[in-house]
Amino acid sequence: MDPEDLDDIKENLTRLNSLLLIVGSGDITHDEVAEISYYLQSIGRSASAYNESYSISRALGALASVIEANNHTFIEKSSSLGSLCKSFGVDLVNWVQIIFHDGAISVDVMDDTIISNSQMLGSMLTINESVNEAVDMDDIFDF
After folding, report:
1. Tens digit of each residue's pLDDT (9 = 90 or more) over 30-58
2. Which of 37, 42, 47 lies closest to 6, judged by CA?
3. What is the largest CA-CA distance in the chain?
4. Whole-angstrom Cα distance, residue 47 to residue 16?
């Protein structure tokens, strides 16, 4: 990876990580959620130019779009998303360290972890509320 792109990823990742750490506090604002989305997209754009990180780039871009579209839900669920966001940030830092500094055995060693965490976080924001309503309707038939 070009050193300039790697520096951009590291800089954006540092800012993203500091925001992800405050997610669980319950005091996150709409502007901070928008920044999280922005940094995810920035990291994804920098990583998208390289075959080795393209799948992570797509996952981060998709997550950024989901967060942007579900800004209010992200804030409402922020206390329950805190530990997942914190571990997601740690995984991203580990990805950069392992792949670009330590020389991992494979360039896709962290791909599955980051992609699945991105998808899980995104799905937690888009869970259909009608599922909960259907469960409630079943309760009226319990005798």
Report:
1. 999 999 999 999 999 998 888 888 999 99
2. 47
3. 66
4. 15
